[in-house]
Specification:
The chain is α+β, with helices and mostly antiparallel strands. The protein has a single domain, classed as Trna Endonuclease, Chain: A, domain 1 (3-Layer(aba) Sandwich), CATH 3.40.1350. Helix content is 25%, strand content 25%. It has 2 helices and 6 strands. It has a 4-stranded mixed beta sheet with strand order 1-4-5-6, sandwiched between helices. The protein is globular.
């Protein structure tokens, strides 16, 4: 477990509606697959295949919004890209003092 990193995975296809095989759509189109907080910095990660993975206009807009408000947004085709980005943020924010939440 990483104490300076939190990740939330969004279900892109929606919420299953019982045994019907249908899904209730998510409320906001374009939200990245992974939403992270690394040492207090917001990070949006859109995961795509190396070949043929294309961003929708909604995804492009979401990633741009994240960048516009000071977060970091990437399109990752490998785990190595994600690790590299997380480590870059950790270096940038090395002034972070880790808090021990155990009592």
């Amino acid at each position: 477990m990483q104490k300076d990193l939190t990740v939330i995975r969004f279900n892109a296809i929606g919420i299953p509606l019982g045994e019907t095989g249908k899904f209730r759509p998510i409320r906001m189109k374009g939200v990245s697959d992974l939403i992270c907080c690394v040492r207090g910095k917001f990070l949006a990660i859109e995961v795509k295949r190396e070949k043929g993975g294309k961003l929708s206009d909604y995804q492009k807009a979401f990633l741009q919004t994240v960048e516009d408000v000071g977060g970091k947004a990437i399109v990752a085709t490998s785990l190595d890209e994600v690790i590299e980005t997380v480590n870059e943020i950790r270096k940038e924010r090395n002034v972070f003092k880790q808090t021990n939440f155990n009592r």
